[in-house]
C-alpha cells in the first residue's frame, strides 16, 4: 500500500469512527447517549431504539427504583441517600450531610445501610404492571399448532420480574384438562390462541419470590377457569401457595392495607385477584373489583384528559376500594408506538387518573412492551408514582429522609 493510499485509509477510518461510533462505551453511556450495544450503557440502562422518539439507538431505562429499598448510607465522611434497584445496584444517590471533622466519632460501621421507611402500607406504592405478561414474542407453540394471536411483551416472566415488574396481568383458561394462559376470545382457549400451561409461568414467579425474599408480587387474573379449584391446584403445584396473602387481611372498605414490612415478615408476598366474583367464596381468591378501581383498557383508555372506569370497576373516585389501576395500551398492541405510549403519554394519563380517582395516584401502571420508551418510560412513571405516594415529590429519587410531603431534593 502506498503512503498516500495508507493515509487515505487511515483518514476514512477516523472519519468512520468520528461519524458512527459513540463518544462513550463499556458501561459509560448515560441516559439518552448514543450506543451500539447494551454493554455500552450504565447499569440500569440498555441500548434501545424508538423510531417515533429519536434517531438511532440510545441508552434507555431498564429498571424501576425499588421503593422498598430506600436506604441512607452512613459512610465515613458523609450521609448519603441512596437508591438501589432490584438487582441491588445503585441507581442514584443524594448527598444529605457531610460530616464535619469536629463531629462525634462515628458509632456505626462505615457503609452501613439504614432503611428509611420501607414499612408503608401496600397501597402506598406504585408497581410496574405488565399487560398480558405471558403473551411473549417467540414463545414456542405448546399445542403443535402455530399460534395466530397478538403478543404484548418481549421478555420472559423472569426478565420482567428482574427488571422491576411487580404486577402481572394473566388470562387464565380451562384447556387440555388443565389451566392455560391464552390470548383468546369468548372465554374459550384454542390451539391457535394458547400460550402455555399456567404452571410454567407460576413456577417462574415462585423462583423469583424464593430468590428475592423482600419482594411482593401481585397477579391480576382475567379468569375464565371454571374447573372447581382449578387455580388453587396450579398455585399448590407450583409452590406459590406458601406465599399466599390471605383474603382475611384484605381491607374491605377502603382502609389501608397491611404494611409491606409485615407482609414480607409473614412471607405473605403473593397477592392474587380474580375477575370471577364467586371465587372469593369458593377458593378464597380475592374478587378484583371489591378492592380495586380501574380505568378503561385499550383505545378507550387512551383518550387524553379522560379517565373513566371500565365496566366491571366501580367509578375511579370510589374510595371504598383502596387500590387504583391505570391501563395505558392500545386495543391492538403496537410495538413501534409503545415507546411513545409508555413515555409522556403514560405520565399524562397517570395525572388525569389521579384527578379522576379523587386525588389518588395509581398503584398499578399497566403497559405493553414495558421496556420500550423514549428514555425513562414506564420505569420513570413508576418512580414518579412512588415519589408522589411516598413523599409528594415528582420522583422517588427526590424524597428526603423523614419527609412525607414538600421536602424534595432538586
Ligand atoms: C447520535 O446518533 C444520531 C443518529 O444516529 C446522530 O444524528 C447524532 O449526531 C449522534 N450524536 C452524537 C453525540 O454522537
Ligand atoms: C413508616 O410509616 C408507617 C406508616 O405510616 C408508620 O406506621 C411507621 O411508624 C413508619 N416507620 C418509621 C420508622 O418511621
Ligand atoms: C404443567 O402442565 C403441563 C400441561 O398440563 C403438564 O404436562 C406438566 O406436567 C405440568 N408441570 C408440572 C411441574 O406440574
Ligand atoms: C391445596 O393445598 C392445600 C394445603 O396443602 C390443601 O388443603 C388443598 O386441598 C389443596 N387444593 C388443591 C385443589 O390441590
UniProtKB/TrEMBL annotation:
One of its GO terms (molecular function) is phosphoric diester hydrolase activity. PROSITE patterns: PIPLC_X_DOMAIN. It holds the Pfam family PI-PLC_cat. Residues 1-23 form the signal peptide. Keywords: Signal. It comes from the Eukaryota. CDD domains: PI-PLCc_At5g67130_like. Gene3D superfamilies: Phosphatidylinositol (PI) phosphodiesterase. PANTHER family: F21F23.12 PROTEIN, PTHR13593. This is Phosphatidylinositol-specific phospholipase C X domain-containing protein.
